[in-house]
Design brief:
19% strand; 720 residues; elongated; 4-stranded antiparallel sheet; alpha+beta
């Protein structure tokens, strides 16, 4: 359908043209199937004698074997050295053919001798010059890269063997007077690796100019295709703005056969959906279409097109997003866009999310030759599909390559185990709780309110980041919430009511556990589908599968700002005291005195609201809280936001070591104060940054200054 329609519009044509030819697979290649590599070659400098005997004209080439097909020499019409030679003739060495000297603006007067040999059948630029001057096209090679009958005595030689022999012969004749080493870019076949030969051939082409024009205009409109990251739009536009006609015929045994037939007697070309009725008089073209020709139709052909009333086409086209690698932007993305516009009048997708390639640990592309490939099934056998999926989805930012490390996959496997074990704890404590019994209306603890608030913040962040395709950040946010907030903190806090005697508190805690775990699994499901489905099926739930469960939505009624402030302070204190115990090798089972000096009465109230958490998780012998606490002699101290902690550790504290530790902390705070003040004194930052960001920096400044003054005072006190 597409081929026929484009042919009828004059956008597909059959013509003789210089194409990229793979002599090994004996097929045409599109420009983007050619890989350019720098190869050490040579410039061969020769003198072609003028027919009138008045002298010579110097030319240079990197492919001397093609000179057998030369039909002209071109010079710039304004070049004073050669203007008088235009219209005269030179004699082609070895062959003896007389060739014309023509003037053409294409020639660069500054490059080399300023004279260029023209081989219209073996060079795309020469082909265009040949068209302008009606030059003969002489093909001197066959499809396998061997010299043909037009090569005279070199017939049958491989092109590179011919190069060696013809160089020797030219030297013997005194024509070749200099060989200059030259590093140049040589095209290689993406399919076989063979050196690509520019080759005159009759092929089928798509006329790209009108199709490309539509695609370029689209990117100037509000309905443009959005590239993520944006930088790839420039890559796409650069290619499509400089596009050449697309060679779509391939000499392969498989593929969509070209729907063209040739009359056996007249040579007439027929293109249609069906074969001609008198098929015995026609022969179908044996070539097949480039695989990307059919792939370009994928967004709409899979939806029932050309029936634009098909249910799938009406519902799903155009699609929301295409996810693909940067290496096939030209092959696939660009072609889907211009074919979609041509045949449906719409962009085929709203967004294109570009990802990178998976490379080995050293950043090399995985390949058979290097032996550095990793079989995904081996990874799955060892660590499971979820661990591999999470690593691949979150391991890099859009458009960037991802290095494969077994250690990182193992890390995600540990994360999955953490989720599994936390879920087992929750399920063991559900006590038969049904989905319709989940009740968050009861009296909630500070920890309950804190985890519910953190969940709402996580829902907001994950949703925003997924919409922006920032899957690496999605993974980081979920990892931190699940591992740190839910597993390390909330589950530990939940054990207090769950193992206690207050039945109402138990019921609320079960409901919070069930609700938070349910919502978290839904957020994690796109990244770890198997483990989340398995756990969710055992949780109190409604519906058949988490896959079709509703996406979490932020609930403003479950935001408790005061509880977050309280719990954040409690966390800092508990963490600080545990770290201090670890530094001094004082076991958590051993009771120690803890004195907490609050900066004001409001902080005292905060601490009193969470007193039972401090008693449970700090294991104090004597716990003192107040605004007038005096630092005990020989005590370990820590300065936090709004509080100063003292642990009287007589016999355990080395005074010199404590002063050294505090001086190190003071140096760190000095640097933080300097950093934030430098930021706030930057007029550009203050002028451009949002008011909220500036306010946060000012709060940081105040907090660092308060901590610094407290540490200074403590150092002075210890030195007395």
């Amino acid at each position: 359908e597409v081929f026929v329609k484009l042919y009828e519009k004059g956008l597909i044509y059959r013509g003789e043209y210089i194409i990229n030819w793979d002599p090994q697979t004996k097929t045409a290649l599109s420009d983007i199937e050619v890989i350019h590599k720098d190869v050490q070659g040579a410039f061969y400098h020769m003198e072609y004698p003028l027919v009138d005997g008045s002298g010579y004209i110097e030319i240079a080439t990197t492919r001397p074997e093609t000179m057998l097909g030369d039909t002209a020499i071109a010079v710039h019409p304004e070049d004073e050295r050669y203007k008088h030679l235009i219209g005269k003739k030179a004699k082609l060495p070895i062959v003896g053919r007389e060739i014309e000297i023509v003037g053409d603006d294409y020639v660069d007067m500054e490059f080399g001798s300023g004279a260029v040999k023209i081989t219209p059948a073996h060079d795309p630029n020469d082909f265009e010059i040949g068209n302008r001057h009606n030059l003969e096209r002489i093909l001197v090679m066959d499809e396998s890269g061997k010299m043909n009958e037009n090569a005279g005595k070199y017939q049958g030689l491989d092109r590179f063997e011919c190069r060696k022999q013809i160089v020797k012969d030219l030297q013997d004749e005194g024509v070749l007077f200099k060989i200059e080493e030259h590093l140049h870019s040589v095209g290689h076949s993406e399919r076989s690796g063979a050196v690509v030969e520019p080759y005159l051939s009759t092929q089928w082409f798509v006329k790209m100019e009108p199709l490309a024009k539509q695609a370029i205009e689209l990117q100037k409109s509000a309905d443009k295709v959005n590239f993520v990251p944006e930088r790839f739009e420039k890559t796409y536009l650069h290619w499509i703005e400089n596009i050449r006609d697309w060679c779509i015929s391939r000499q392969l045994w498989w593929g969509h056969r070209i729907p063209a037939w040739y009359h056996n007697e007249t040579g007439e070309v027929y293109v249609g959906h069906e074969a001609p009725s008198d098929i015995e008089n026609w022969t179908q073209d044996e070539d097949v279409l480039d695989t990307w020709f059919s792939s370009a139709l994928w967004p709409f052909s899979t939806m029932g097109w050309p029936d634009e009333n098909a249910a799938d086409f009406k519902r799903y086209y155009s699609t929301d997003v295409l996810v693909t690698g940067y290496d096939i932007i030209y092959f696939w993305v660009a072609r889907m866009i211009f074919q979609g516009l041509e045949f449906t009048g719409e962009r085929p997708f709203k967004d294109v999310l570009i990802h990178g390639l998976v490379r080995d640990g050293e950043g090399r592309k995985m390949s058979k030759s290097l032996g550095n490939g990793v079989d995904p099934m081996d990874v799955i056998d060892k660590y499971g599909a979820d661990a591999l999926r999470f690593f691949l989805a979150t391991g890099s930012s859009p458009g960037n390559d991802l290095r494969f490390y077994w250690e990182k996959v193992e890390s995600t496997w540990n994360f999955a185990n953490k989720i599994w074990n936390a879920s087992r704890f929750a399920l063991m404590n559900m006590d038969g709780l049904a989905y319709d019994e989940i009740d968050l209306s009861g009296e909630k603890s500070i920890a309950d309110k804190w985890i519910l608030t953190r969940l709402q913040e996580t829902i907001t962040a994950v949703t925003r980041l997924i919409d922006a395709y920032e899957f690496g950040e999605v993974g980081r946010v979920l990892y931190n919430f699940i591992w740190d907030d839910f597993c390390d903190w909330y589950i530990e806090m939940a054990k207090l009511p769950l193992y206690g005697k207050d039945e109402a508190a138990k019921k609320t805690t079960r409901s919070v556990l069930a609700y938070v775990l349910d919502q978290t699994l839904r957020l994690l499901h796109p990244l770890m589908p198997f483990i989340t489905e398995e756990i969710w099926q055992h949780l109190p739930h409604e519906g058949e599968s988490i896959t079709v469960a509703k996406w979490p939505v932020r609930n403003e009624e479950l935001i408790f700002d005061e509880a977050v402030k309280d719990f954040t302070l409690l966390k800092e204190i508990i963490r600080s005291i545990r770290n201090t115990r670890a530094e001094l090798n004082v076991a958590m089972s051993k009771k120690v005195d803890i004195h907490i000096k609050a900066k004001d009465a409001a902080v005292v109230e905060q601490l009193e609201r969470g007193l039972h958490y401090l008693e449970k998780f700090c294991n104090p012998n004597e716990l003192k809280i107040g605004t007038d606490i005096i630092a005990p002699e020989k005590s370990m101290s820590n300065v936090l936001s709004g509080v100063e902690l003292f642990l009287p550790l007589a016999g355990l504290l080395n005074l010199d070591e404590e002063i050294a530790r505090l001086e190190k902390e003071l140096d760190k705070l000095d640097k933080e104060v300097e950093r934030v003040q430098k930021k706030l004194s930057n007029e550009g930052f203050v002028a451009k940054a949002p008011a909220k960001v500036i306010e946060e920096e000012r709060k940081k400044e105040q907090d660092y200054i308060e901590k610094r003054e407290t540490v200074k005072a403590r150092i002075a006190e210890l030195k007395q």
